[in-house]
Design brief:
NAD(P)-bd_dom_sf (chains A, B, C, D), EC 1.2.1.38 (chains A, B, C, D), 20% strand, 7-stranded parallel beta sheet, Dihydrodipicolinate Reductase, domain 2, 12 helices, 2 domains, homotetramer, alpha/beta, 346 residues, Rossmann fold, N-acetyl-gamma-glutamyl-phosphate reductase (chains A, B, C, D)
């Protein structure tokens, strides 16, 4: 059994880690870290886990935790993992960081967009960007995995094959993203109240959202050039789900069949990426609760653009599910172990 | 492997059977029956099953089906199972009927409340009412199981221990029930449109809902007397979940500890019934996607009443999950096989 | 023009007062009181009022306010109005208190259920309980009106005619109430977050909710006897709306026509109470945004009970709308002035 | 009093016309046309109108209607108005058509996108495109007004000033639109069921939606050149509201102040267009139930694009409200008569 510790176990992403890992046959959760609920029963914070989890919440002591477990998940705000990790800890335990601390290779870009100083830039180089479908081999041998952001996972996977194959003009790429409200976390803030979100939709963080440079960096690697995009997130009245609608001008004269073939080249062997049949637009409900990303596209000959669409559960493939997928790779397990979650409909 | 056929596989309850059974390690689904979608790919009707189910939908031919499978689930409107079943079929195959046809022992009561003639009353006697927690032993040897209704499962389990122990005056029992909209099925009707249900709550079927006699019959067995109740269902703007709030006058002077002890007597060994800690009211979200029923109660000394509450996912414990639980019992499998579904929150 | 001051203008009930009063032809709002947002533009707190309201928020200074306006609305938590009001203020200005401070005539009952000491019990006697349909004449001459609670308005109006006419056994009355989330206010608390409320329903405050004694007192006056009821509120995933489902045993052998006649006797001349046609259950969506209460009932001959149902917008008839209705009466205006709000559907 | 007839009074847009016109002081509704509900009480179809509207529904007889009223609103699917209108009718009565029949000046474009033959192309020339803020003077003298589509109203008004002033490269314009579900109408179809829409978001009609040529034609007039855009609508789980997010490359080096000045030039005198303060993104909830369009923008210097955002109630400014605004202009009334609807929050 792999012994697991979770720092930040009572946020929504932490809760989803507990949901998935509590049913994972090779895992034992040893540490439910939550500063806000120390010594409280975990199942009192998340009553869905009543009679499933009996443990109480612990403090966020990474050094002590490193002696007790094989892998630590940090599901905390940016800055925390970066400030706690050190060589001694990394020599004892693997870390999968769900925050942004080790996602961006250029520390200046990180500090600029996140507005905080990076406390352990020396580990940025070895950290592996844990987008399993793209960096699978590197993840397997990693000590420190930077689990991708929710918007970024969906945005990158949706555009990756066309970026990689040079089909689209990367200077024209626009990502219009829509997210359910669990992406905003469990913090008690007026804008996240039921009555403020329900029957409402809005854009936020226009031209300034922190997931922008992460998407740009990864798609830049794929395209082999610097990429600068427009990225606009929107808040949608639903609990889970991210939909991205991406627009780009075609560089070549390609048919829908050719683009389909490109997507299939990259994803036909990928269990968790489903390229839908022609004419079917992805819907977030079809992937809810699962680790799938559903992708499709449409060529618009009138504008010479391709419209790419991707749908995903932000808490699963966009956070906890992908983190477990990374863990499976790092420990030599079947990549889909514990993640054979059938989407729930309705 | 148990070979399974589903008649009515494209309704919401049928879809939930597919979700659960497709992940059940001892089951192979051989027949996706759906009159409306014959020859269409099942995953085109439920895109969540894309790349999970490759089969096409078939007609509802129970006789042919009986030769091919070990168990048939009928997730169809009342009347269908009753009109198709016969001795030859029952000699070949077990049947779990999710409709109301074999739930009520008194055929006159059935015909009166449902307004249709029962086509095979000769099987009502042998049919076992498949509320596993109460009729477990009978289910194990049954050929024909009447899978309980959604409201009824929740209503009965919530009141059962107090009815059985004679603590409450059954003449005072009032069941005020609230259901998510999936209970109304997938039929295209104006009252079930998004804009009609969203931001709305209403009662319906007041004093006339068909689940009433089913609850009365079962609680009557428990109490050892004829039971007549008030039952009022309400439609709530959510996909899944049933909450029942039940009111009854106490016949004895009992403490909360004593009532808790009664609930524990019946349910402490039941995996799928969770009696919550004192003071915590059940919420449907805590059981969503799972086979759990969460129950609690509160004594009101001012009125000498006990308020009992139960929460459940109407498509799981209220339909498909309980049907699979029955199947597990009928085939000698672990009762919880395929049903270790952790509730999803949020 | 009637000069109006609002203390607590940035809560949901306060916001609704602003919505209604800003379109009231005889009213000028002079004071938007909000301790949390002093000196901020009101329309920054409620962007729906952009270019409609240009004022900034002020402190909650009732004494100063009393010199400037003709009527003060206090839309604040219990205790505040009771601690601020005094004879000098009441000699200058009329007060409509949307909190519970002056609703309950028995100060001991108030202090027991609310858990706070009443700071100005000397005004309880003269305060008029502002349920306009019942206390219209008293309201007209009142200096201090206690605006009824949301659950209570709906619960009382739904049962009032049958209680008054002695048709129902008051000892059997059970009120099962369901409310949208705006009733919980705009405070930033985890249980009111979108993801906690959405796709969820729960009971709360079982046998202990503070609106219980208010309903009991008023229905007691109607019935001419002490009344003790079971009252259970539920939180429903919608912004607005209260539905009550009330159960009572019939004391007399009455027909549906007779009960309809009783309702008509009390309400056929009431603009804001609509007794629906036979067989139609009230729905909260049909009154959304308006000052209407929709009422209907069903006799259940099997149990000898009558099921009464009432639907209302909790922020309008349950708070701000009724407060304006009271103001209209107190100032000799047309009772429906500013309240001719057509319900919005969908 | 202006006598009004509505053809299609029981669809959602028709219902909204009734809501608004029933409170309009200069209007009397004489004809509630609805083929589906002939002879049924209107308030039985829309119970919100109980005791407000007493009339029954009538057939869709435009010729007879033309003799009885001063203005006809057709809130019907495309094709109907075009097939009924003729010179005799237009000589007797003004027509405001909420369908697409007379919106597009190029009949070939209409027939190509809508897939039907236009039955009265002779009136296309005289029909005025009823976007009041742009074509106010022409509307005043029109016999036949083509009321703009919901997506189009929001899309055009949001981009119009920048298109008109030549600030943006029209070849780069991308409109990503999100709509509440009432835009899909009241037809009973599976994809519009509560359980299919709730907790879900999807794009639809990608690169093929019929509002595309309407936006292109109107923005083409503004820009003085042919315009071809990418337009992608999305279905959002809410009843009302449209949000558009529009992307375009800047042709000139402009500051945010300069763009703000351009918006103010066109809209500062417009009652129903609110250009928000800097940094505030429009939200559909802030305009719900009202005739407002809220607009704002953000320059992204990294990409040299401007992101424009507009929010609107699709049934009000996007349909019935704008139709009444047109009627007011056509009959010389105050333009905002009956439309001083304060947005409802929450």
């Amino acid at each position: 059994m792999i012994k697991v510790g979770i720092i930040g176990a009572t946020g929504y992403a932490g809760g989803e880690l507990v949901r998935i890992l509590s049913a994972h046959k090779d895992v034992e959760i040893k540490w439910y870290g939550s500063r806000s609920y120390i010594d409280e029963k975990y199942a009192r914070v998340y009553q869905n886990m009543f009679q499933i989890v009996d443990d109480v919440c612990m403090d966020d002591n990474m050094a002590e935790l490193a002696d007790q477990v094989d892998v630590i998940f940090t599901a905390t705000p940016q800055g925390l993992c970066g400030s706690l990790v050190n060589e001694e800890i990394l020599s004892k335990v693997k870390i999968i960081d769900l925050s942004a601390d080790f996602r961006i290779k250029d520390v200046k870009t990180y500090e600029q967009w996140y507005g905080i100083e990076h406390k352990s830039p020396q580990f940025i180089g070895e950290a592996v960007y844990g987008l399993c479908e793209i960096n699978r081999e590197d993840v397997k041998s990693a000590r420190l995995v930077a689990n991708p952001g929710c918007y970024t996972t969906c945005s990158i996977l949706t555009a990756y094959p066309l970026a990689k194959e040079g089909v689209i003009d990367m200077h024209t790429l626009i990502v219009d993203a829509k997210s359910g409200t669990s992406g905003a976390g469990r913090g008690a803030k007026v804008p996240n109240l039921y009555c403020e979100v329900n029957e409402n939709i809005k854009a936020y963080g226009v031209a300034t959202h922190r997931h922008t440079p992460e998407i740009e960096e990864q798609l830049g690697y794929a395209a082999g050039e610097d990429v600068v995009i427009s990225f606009t997130p929107h808040l949608v009245p639903m609990n889970r789900g991210i939909l991205v609608t991406e627009y780009a001008t075609l560089k070549k004269n390609v048919t829908e069949e050719q683009i389909k073939a490109i997507y299939d080249k990259y994803y036909s062997d990928e269990k968790f990426v489903r390229v839908l049949d022609g004419g079917i637009c992805p819907e977030t409900k079809w992937v809810e609760g699962s680790n799938y990303v559903d992708i499709n596209f449409k060529i618009d000959p009138r504008t010479n653009r391709v419209v790419m669409m991707g749908a995903m559960d932000n808490l699963v493939k966009g956070a906890a599910g992908q983190a477990v997928q990374n863990m499976n790779l790092m420990f030599g397990l079947k990549e889909s172990e514990g993640l054979e979650l059938v989407p729930m409909f309705p």
